Amino acid sequence: AAWLDGVVSQVLKPYQGSAGFPKAAKLFLLKWSFYSSMVIRDLTLRSAASFGSFHLIRLLYDEYMYYLIEHRVAQAKGETPIAVMGEFANLATSLNPLDPDKDEEEEEEEESEDELPQDISLAAGGESPALGPE
After folding, report:
1. Which residues pair with 132 in a beta bridge?
2. What does the pLDDT profile of the chain (134 residues) look like in tens digits?
3. What is the domain extent for residue 59?
4. Across-strand partners of 128?
5. How far is the C-alpha of 9 from the C-alpha of 32, rounded, in Å?
6. Residue 110 resides in a domain
7. Side-chain half-sphere of 46: how many Cα atoms within 13 Å?
8. What CA–CA distance (Å, rounded) separates 10 from 2?
9. 83 lies in some domain
């Protein structure tokens, strides 16, 4: 925990007291997630025996890192941590908008595929009954 706190302090120290602090914090979280995902990817590709342990440690570290960042951003903005958490949740929602029309189109495509005849057999001589002799 002390090491993670030190990492956050060191990375965000240049932005302390500036208006760009929240953006720098979000960028740090993005980079943190990217690099830890790359380590997980490498362990997966190499079928490493330590994958399970590292994955559990990563989950713990990620949650604690989000906690630290949320509290630091809340202090910098003079808001409560719960207000900052709402902003992070809104950011995630805006990055992955749900389009209900798209979901309906996908369902319609699946239904139309289900309506196609499933059993297409070839007649004797290699001719398809639906296509005729030609």
Report:
1. 128
2. 999 999 999 999 999 988 889 899 999 999 999 999 999 999 999 999 999 999 999 999 999 999 999 999 998 888 787 877 776 666 555 555 555 455 555 555 555 455 544 444 444 455 544 555 55
3. 2-13+20-95
4. 132
5. 14
6. no
7. 11
8. 12
9. yes
Q: What is the DSSP string of 50-109?
A: THHHHHHHHHHHHHHHHHHHHHHHHHHHT--HHHHHHHHHHHHHHHS---HHHHHHHHHH
- Domain total of the chain: 1
Residue 113 half-sphere exposure, CB side, CA atoms within 13 Å? 6
Show the CA angle centred on residue 95, arms to residues 92 and 100, nearest 5°: 105
Does residue 124 belong to any structural domain of this protein? Answer: no
Q: Is position 101 within any domain? A: no
Per the CB < 8 A criterion, the answer to whether 51 and 43 are in contact is yes
